[in-house]
User: What shape does this take?
Amino acid sequence: MTQDERRIYLIRALLSEEVQYRDMEIPTDIQQQKRLLRALFNVRMPKLVSQEFLTVQDAYLQEATRQKGITNIAELTPVQDGIYLWQGDITTLRCGAIVNAANSQMLGCFCPNHGCIDNAIHTYAGVQLRAACAELMERQGHKEETGRAKLTLAFNLPCDYVIHTVGPIVGYRLTSRDRALLASCYRSCLELAEQNNIRSVAFCCISTGEFHFPNYKAAEIAVHTVKEYKEQTHSKIEVIFNVFKDIDFQIYRELLTAD
Assistant: This one.
């Protein structure tokens, strides 16, 4: 199968799962096809799927990521001992684990083609990730608490694992509780990684998007918490601060080169 053939197969398979989608026309434009496929991935509930579907999906997603370009942690230069700053698409990073800024349902973002990191990670990991998260949450029996962390395989992503954490949602003003919960996110992710012998972790900018945590304050907490953890535990874990926006790159560069 070519990549185009895989995409059409996946769209048809996903459309056929739901009665209301079965008569939908598949666009001829490739970019529109890609948007439709992502949207269908985004809204699909966790449920059984055929092995044939998984085989085609896995080949499609892995090739899509290869075409975007994979960055290996070994190619990066640390800005401090064991600490890196990298601007790029976290779904293309090959390392031990990437951190997903999840919501309390822990099932990914169901908004079609939404720009959040939760949506991107679930899209390029494949339908297996939502199913794995659903299984975790069913065993837990309640929504995920803010500041905690959960571990899953990464499936079709180039990293080995995904660590899911729910950051605080900031209201009309930033509180000391918000700060403490964000610090807990970083500590929980690091502790979970070490418990599972994961040697490198890439952090996104937790809570700074839809959850409205001020970017500079969030970066200060992230850098301080990671450095404090490494100093207190003598951990050798490698940490990548992954940013997407230019403003966040400037903030982290300032904080990491200040001392």
